[in-house]
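Structure in, sequence out. Go:
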């Protein structure tokens, strides 16, 4: 008999304790082999003065068990409280957010009866580093970071997920027609990794039309992998249109630690009344069982749950006259699922799972070899951004031309990505945020030193021009690693 797997459990707030009890009861009834270590998170911890809602001692449990089954929590109103999810995600590098969005027609009302989409959202990068600046009186900036190792991890995760779950296709959404370097890298890595998974179909959509298609015809998609921001937006859209926000679970996967939960909140008004639907948390727990190598139990529990749903045993939130047969409370619903362990659904599609297993995850990490790929980097110029409101673009151009020398010369000035000097259109609206591009006097591709850049900045300062940031222009293996302004 295999040993029990230690997991960390938090019962949370509001309906959390009830739905956790119900979930654990179903897992036990299906034969899960778990050893539970309970921690306290949420409102009480916030109100004891912890800004994150989780105490350092709780992290020790997570580091030990590496698996976290978390009920929803209530974030107290008012400022000063941080998101517990963001804290756990950042502390433990939970890079993948996995959210299956499934319709259970005709037993749960939905506009998209055939929908069965898994959203795999990158969880650490993109604009979520929260690196923002107000750079001038008029202009603010947020840094969007897309890295090769970060993208390799999430894309490979999506393909491994597809393979383990008998999925046929992985779709990638980006906006690489506009963000050619950042989203372009995500798309390029998607193509590289897709080529290794010849058994799985792959496709790429520009995110705008992809999102429209996903909202209109979700049955055309299977697994969808996205950068963080698009994933944040579209995972909610997908859960909503499946018609089953209260039924969706979610996994946050890191290299060492993973967290499983429902996507809904603590529904305080429903708390303590034996009303809440435990299904979202339960379906999160099913993903947890697969993750800890108990695919057999996950399959038994999930199929019993599907059977319960199709037999019309429903909690109030999905109960519908004419479709449902029995309105039940949280505890009774759990009991109904346990009573069906060993049965499979007859109308809905039964599930089958293969365990992720520690070995799979290990070998998957070792296959991320390309991250060490090196390229020849050469600095060939610098963009100096200035805060300037003193006149026409031509006047700034002339002021910058005077700073030419020491091997550097002005090549162009752009405002909000549009070239305004030399040339430019009088119609172009200009803010107070100017990008002055300097390249080697010796011609395109000639290298530029840090010392030349530093002395250029000294000349800006001497001329009384308020420079607010610089970006080095680098070529990688002879190819430009920077964008060009629109002409
Ligand atoms: P909510 O998801 O808690 O509730 C929204 C609506 O859905 C309510 O009408 C509720 O009655 C219903 N509902 C939600 N889950 C249900 C279930 N399992 N069964 C039956 N009905 C259910 O969202 P909210 O009211 O905006 O937020 C309440 C609290 O939850 C807030 O403090 C919020 O910060 C927190 N929250 C926590 C998490 C989390 O811990 N991951 C996520 C979202 C919201």
């Amino acid at each position: 008999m295999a040993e029990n797997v230690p997991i960390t459990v938090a019962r949370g707030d509001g309906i959390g304790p009830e739905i956790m009890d119900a979930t654990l009861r179903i897992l036990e009834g299906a034969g899960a082999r778990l050893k539970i270590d309970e921690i306290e998170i949420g409102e009480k911890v916030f109100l004891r003065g912890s800004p994150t809602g989780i105490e350092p001692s709780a992290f020790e449990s997570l580091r030990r068990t590496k698996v976290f089954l978390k009920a929803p929590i209530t974030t107290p109103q008012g400022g000063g409280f941080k998101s517990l999810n963001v804290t756990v995600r950042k502390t433990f590098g939970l890079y993948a957010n996995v959210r299956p969005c499934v319709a259970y027609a005709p037993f749960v009302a939905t506009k998209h009866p055939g929908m069965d989409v898994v959203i795999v959202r990158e969880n650490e990068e993109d604009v979520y580093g929260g690196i923002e600046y107000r750079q001038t009186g008029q202009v603010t900036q947020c840094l969007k970071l897309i890295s090769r190792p970060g993208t390799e991890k999430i894309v490979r995760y999506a393909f491994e997920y597809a393979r383990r779950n008998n999925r046929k296709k992985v779709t990638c959404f980006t906006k690489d027609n506009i963000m050619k370097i950042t989203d372009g890298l995500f798309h390029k890595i998607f193509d590289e990794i897709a080529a290794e998974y010849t058994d799985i179909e792959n496709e790429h959509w520009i995110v705008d039309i992809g999102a429209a298609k996903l909202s209109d015809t979700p049955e055309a998609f299977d697994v969808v992998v996205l950068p963080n921001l698009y994933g944040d937006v579209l995972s909610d859209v997908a859960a909503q249109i499946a018609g089953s926000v209260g039924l969706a679970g979610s996994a946050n996967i890191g290299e060492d630690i993973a967290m499983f939960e429902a996507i809904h909140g603590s529904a305080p008004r429903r708390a303590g009344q034996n009303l809440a639907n435990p299904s979202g948390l339960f379906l999160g727990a099913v993903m947890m069982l697969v993750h800890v190598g108990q695919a057999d139990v996950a399959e038994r529990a999930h199929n019993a749950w599907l059977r319960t749903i199709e037999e019309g045993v429903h909690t109030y939130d999905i109960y519908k006259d004419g479709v449902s047969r029995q309105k039940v409370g949280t505890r009774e619903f759990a009991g109904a699922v346990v009573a069906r362990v060993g049965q499979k659904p007859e109308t809905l599609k039964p599930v089958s799972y293969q365990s992720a297993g520690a070995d799979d995850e290990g070998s998957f990490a070792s296959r991320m070899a390309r991250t060490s790929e090196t390229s020849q980097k050469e600095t060939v110029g610098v963009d100096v951004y200035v805060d300037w409101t003193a006149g026409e673009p031509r006047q700034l151009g002339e002021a910058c031309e005077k700073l030419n020398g020491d091997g550097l010369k002005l090549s162009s000035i752009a405002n909000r990505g549009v070239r305004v000097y030399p040339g430019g259109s009088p119609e172009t609206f200009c803010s107070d945020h100017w990008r002055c591009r300097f390249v080697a006097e010796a011609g395109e591709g000639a290298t530029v030193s840090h010392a030349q850049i530093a002395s250029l900045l000294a000349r800006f300062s001497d001329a009384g021009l308020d420079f607010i940031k610089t970006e080095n222009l680098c070529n990688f293996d002879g190819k430009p690693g920077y964008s060009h302004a629109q002409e």
